[in-house]
Amino acid sequence: VYQRNPFHGSEPHARFYTACVVRAFQHLHQRQIIYRDLKPENLLLDTRGYCKVTDFGLAKFVIGHTYTTCGTPEYIAPEMVFGAGHTLAVDWWSLGVLVFELMTGESPFTADENFQVFRRVRRGIEAAEFPARAGPWADLVKRLCLQEPSERLALRPGGVKNVEDHKWFTSANFEWNHLDRRTMVAPYVPAVKSSTDLQNFDDPSSDFEWIFMVLVGDARSVAGRLESGVKQVVANKAAFAALKKDGSLLCWGGAGSGGCPSLKVQPLLVHGVVQVVPSKPGAFAALKEDGSVITWGSPLFGGDSTAVEDQLQSGVEQLFASEVGVYVATKSDGTVVTWGPSALGGDKGKVGTLLEEIRQDLVAAEGRGLNIVRQLAATNRAIAALLIDGQVVTWGDGRAGGDSYSDKDLAEQLDCDVQQVWGVEGGAFAALTKDGAVVTCGNPKAGGDAGAFKEKLQEGVEKIFSLSRAFIAVKVDGSVVAWGDEELGGSPELAEKLQGGVENVVESQGAFALLKTNGSVVTCGILDEEVNRGSDSSAVEASLQSGVMDIRATDSAFAALKVDGSVVCWGSGPASEPGYIAREHMKEGVCQLFATEGAFLGIKTDGSMFAWGRRQFGVEGTPEQLKGPT
């Protein structure tokens, strides 16, 4: 529509279409669904001119953070570029970009090559060039595109109402209630004969979808069905599951880990699957569109939910799995269901009674059932649930922070308007309150006790990174506090090196690489005299001093993508020692970087791909052989 009509710069058009997207995002986010693919091409007009959001191929049901880098480069939020994990906040960033494009005709981060786009995204919206006389719409864009996800306009207290009350809408007396009732006249109504008139579309027969997938493992049994229509691929230690856009699920790999569902389970996976969650030790759980949950794989690690089967027949909204095979399902009526290793959180114990009391209180207050869990986190031996009232409850091994029912001091400590909670493998939790304070519990040697750093964590903390046995907190003034196992990232020396801010942290078997806000990389962790797992980056230190925009890790090596399109790697094994062909292609033109357990994959600006590492974990072939739409 914008290509055929002179609508760029028209505030009535941009305002109306933006409002339609706001309502779409509000609907999705209330159901914990991230869209992740906003762009003009995915917005269609109905017969009355109302804007519809389409193409949910990248949408995902998410509790907390997810880590897949996807979407259109100009619309990707900075946290996704860094690979630091993202939330619903990425959609509001993309809405700001959309408003900018509707008003100016181009993205604020437009560049000739993707790596240049990502570099501009990293600099932020303040570095973008706005028209000299931009009106209130420019302020809305800036408030939606703040670097800190939690500060974006719709994520602040008040939520979507903050967007509705913004001056760009109020100054035009925009009637949101008329939009909701569809009584508002759209600024443009397409000329169509009927709801089935396709004159404004290209010939459907000329349109096709080609999906190039990088698969790990022996998928010959399902290979023919993996050539197109795949939406998501997940894995546990020995098996894989591919969710297709038609709602079917395909599995392959180790039969004992869920690679070959039983004759009883297989028919249930033919249609209606909306999410699949792996248990890394060896099981899968699938959430279906009717709210039921199906499990299969190792019964020791969540593959057998027989004990709670009756509770998983309907109403499930969220599905979560810990690193040790404990599953948690939260339901629309407020019920919380758990299964898996009982001593590690599979049995809620007395906390179950507390959760039921909270649920009943909410039902009495609201007059209806309500999902009471906002976020879930786990250690290797316990589960933490952040409830909608801001308190955190934990269950599992009390030594790992999992006993907020019996430990009244801990319960009181965790009832403090928490914004987000993190867990580390070593058995500790850290919770960030809305006023910027940090509360910890669990194994003191893994960060469960901040010790001498408690005073520094009383206020001003804006984000936390969790390592395997330590935490790193970044404060609003750019200062950094680290605590926990000093050898594994919890040392004051490391905190000193990180002053100024941290953007991302990746781990490789006890070694860590931390990307700083200034584009440099700091490494730490276990120093093995026989094998360098990546904690020693001295061989490439000069290349890591500046200009790094992303870092990734395999199980023995690290790779850093720089703003000039080059890649630097270090550590041990094949993933740290690329062959001649890969080395040549790492010199320039790389715009995205991915990692599996044993290999790296680079995507270049011309759409080609190259890989290096252990062959069974990567891709064979030259960039020319791998070239295609990516």
Automatic annotation (TrEMBL):
Keywords of this entry: ATP-binding, Kinase, Nucleotide-binding, Serine/threonine-protein kinase, Transferase
What is the superkingdom listed in this entry's lineage? Eukaryota
SMART domains recorded for this chain?
A: S_TKc
Q: Which residues form the AGC-kinase C-terminal domain?
A: 172-227
Task: Return the Pfam families for the record.
Answer: Pkinase
Domain Protein kinase as annotated: residue spans: 1-169
GO molecular function, a single term = protein serine/threonine kinase activity
Q: Which InterPro entries match?
A: AGC-kinase_C (IPR000961), Kinase-like_dom_sf (IPR011009), Prot_kinase_dom (IPR000719), RCC1/BLIP-II (IPR009091), Ser/Thr_kinase_AS (IPR008271)
Q: What is this protein called?
A: cGMP-dependent protein kinase
Q: Which organism is it from?
A: Polarella glacialis
What does the record give as the organism's lineage? Eukaryota, Sar, Alveolata, Dinophyceae, Suessiales
